[in-house]
Design brief:
single chain; alpha+beta; 12 helices; globular
């Protein structure tokens, strides 16, 4: 099989909930990064075999195949297809895996992978519509009786709630299992903001970000979530919403955000013939699953699986991006992998930069590739915890 390489990576700024990007339709936001991807790489949109787009809340403005709609909004030829997938927070990372498999197997020459989530306009949980009257079923509730019965009685599983698996509760369970204190989580969160602020001040994000022009003509050019005025004292004053005696707060959780990102994937041979420059080779791509009640631990076995397949040790990876869904996730991952903390999320993570669910995987890959290029790092590893207790891991090699 041929190698799969990334020949372009761009992202929008990440907007706060209710921030500047709240005025932009998610299809239009997706189209903006598609247009910029073509402009910056020089790829011909007519040669794109497929667009694989991640999105979690596929309802309302994000319904009816947002990936295909983004192609049309970008003005790309009508001959370019598009599809939309949901692997929860890892949706656009999974889109990259599918794109790599398609080009490596010869089923496609050039595939665009990415994703979007406008969490302001389409709030998380919008696709769940229980009956308001008790007589109309609405769209119904997820999971069904058999899943609820399987986990009924498991600590952390609320069998009779509309959504019985709760990520925040999972984060609390992880903190308890790994002995993580409130102080450790707050210190980690503060460091995420400090690293992101330093990177933003140094202009480290500028090359990867696509400015977004708003309907009123204003332009958004930078991530909005970085809190430069936060402190350990402020973080210590926040409530613990998932457990009265818990340790996880909004400050040690990822931010609800709006954003999109896109990656172009092909083979080295096709790139050479068509004047595209490979940035990195997709060395290894895996998916794994773990306890759906703890939910957020799968990056640990997924990392072990990826390293085995890659024939690499964690010490050979120069940078790792572990999505900061909640601070206990990367901290537990560090404890289990014995990885170097200095190599983890060096430009901050979702606690500071935000987490536009369906777009985060591609956003993180875009940021990691830029970090690798700036620092001359050979191998980078990205992992995302995902609803249902899953995780993707992607190892890329700089070219």
């Amino acid at each position: 099989m041929a190698d799969a390489v990334i020949v372009g990576a761009v992202r929008s700024p990440v907007g706060r909930r209710g921030g500047a990007l709240a005025t932009v339709h998610p299809v239009d936001l997706s189209a903006r990064v598609l247009t910029a991807l073509a402009e910056r790489t020089g790829l011909d949109p007519a040669q794109v075999d497929d667009v694989i787009w991640g999105c979690v809340s596929q309802v309302g403005e994000q319904a009816w195949n947002v990936g295909r709609n983004a192609v049309l909004a970008a003005g790309w030829p009508e001959s370019v297809p598009g599809t939309t997938l949901d692997r929860q927070c890892g949706s656009s990372q999974q889109a990259l895996h599918f794109a790599a498999a398609a080009v490596a197997s010869g089923q496609a020459d050039l595939v665009v992978a990415g994703g979007v989530e406008s969490m302001t306009r389409v709030p998380m949980g919008s696709s769940i519509q229980p009956s308001a009257s008790g007589t109309s079923p609405g769209t119904g509730l997820p999971y069904g009786g058999q899943v609820r019965d399987r986990y009924r009685g498991t600590p952390g599983f609320a069998a009779d709630d509309p959504v019985p698996f709760n990520q925040g509760v999972g984060a609390e369970l992880i903190a308890a299992r790994w002995g993580l204190t409130r102080r450790q989580l707050d210190e980690y969160a503060l460091a995420s903001h400090e690293k992101a602020a330093a990177a933003q001040d140094a202009g480290a994000f500028e090359a990867e970000i696509v400015p977004v022009v708003l309907p009123d003509g204003a332009k958004v050019v930078a991530d909005e979530g970085i809190r430069r005025d936060t402190s350990l004292d402020r973080l210590a004053g926040l409530k613990t919403p998932f457990r009265a005696d818990g340790v996880v707060t909004a400050g040690s959780a990822s931010q609800i955000s709006d954003g999109a990102a896109a990656l172009a994937v092909t083979t080295p041979e096709w790139a050479r013939r068509n004047g595209l420059r490979p940035l990195a080779r997709i060395h290894t791509a895996v998916v794994a699953a773990d306890d759906p009640v703890l939910m957020l631990t799968a990056p640990i076995p997924a990392t072990a699986k990826a390293l085995r397949r890659a024939g690499l040790g964690i010490e050979e990876i120069g940078v790792y991006e572990v999505n900061e869904a909640f601070a206990p996730v990367p901290l537990a991952w560090l404890a289990e992998t014995e990885a170097d903390p200095a190599r983890l999320n060096p430009r901050g993570g979702a606690i500071a930069l935000g987490h536009p669910l369906g777009g985060s995987g591609a956003r993180i890959m875009t940021t990691m590739l830029q970090q690798m290029r700036d620092s001359g790092v050979r191998y980078g590893l990205q992992t995302m915890c995902e609803g249902g207790g899953m995780a993707n891991v992607t190892i890329v090699e700089l070219l």
